[in-house]
């Protein structure tokens, strides 16, 4: 391999978007769909369908697709649970901090 080939391969790797970048773009697209009036259940179904359809089209075998799709579902569920628990703890802490404070008081 020449230095030129190695440089081209490195440039191509640097241009490859990360999973976080791809997810950010998909989230932006979902926001556009929502702003356009699409219903959340329709978007969720479509994203899951297209993800599965895409995986089946590019994978060597169907058995490779489902663990990837299910892993994404599991990760999203765990992330959602974690965020929900954090929000509950934060609101409980806020509620405890405000005990005994008159309603007319301004907290800073």
Task: Provide the descriptors you would attach to this structure in a database record.
extended
SSE arrangement:
Blueprint: H1 3-15, H2 19-35, H3 40-58, H4 62-97
Helix pairs in contact: 3-4
Would you write up a description of this structure?
This protein is mostly helical and 108 residues long. It has one domain (20-96). It has four helices and no strands. Helix 3 packs antiparallel against helix 4. The radius of gyration is 22 Å and the shape is extended. The N and C termini lie far apart (63 Å). The mean pLDDT is 84.
Shape: extended
Beta-strand content: under 5%
Q: Rg, please?
A: 22 Å
Return the structural class. Answer: mainly alpha
Low-confidence stretches: none
What is the element string, with H for helices and E for strands?
A: HHHH
Write down the overall mean pLDDT: 84
Number of alpha- plus pi-helical segments: 4
Summarize the structure.
The chain has 108 residues and is an all-alpha fold. It has four helices and no strands.
């Amino acid at each position: 391999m020449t230095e030129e080939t190695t440089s081209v391969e490195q440039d191509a790797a640097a241009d490859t978007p990360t999973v976080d970048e791809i997810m950010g773009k998909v989230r932006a697209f979902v926001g556009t769909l929502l702003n356009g009036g699409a219903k959340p259940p329709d978007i969720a179904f479509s994203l899951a369908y297209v993800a599965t359809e895409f995986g089946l089209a590019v994978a060597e075998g169907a058995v490779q697709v489902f663990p990837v799709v299910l892993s994404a579902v599991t990760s999203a569920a765990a992330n959602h649970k974690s965020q929900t628990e954090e929000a509950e703890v934060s609101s409980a802490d806020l509620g405890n901090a405000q005990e005994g404070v008159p309603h007319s008081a301004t907290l800073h």
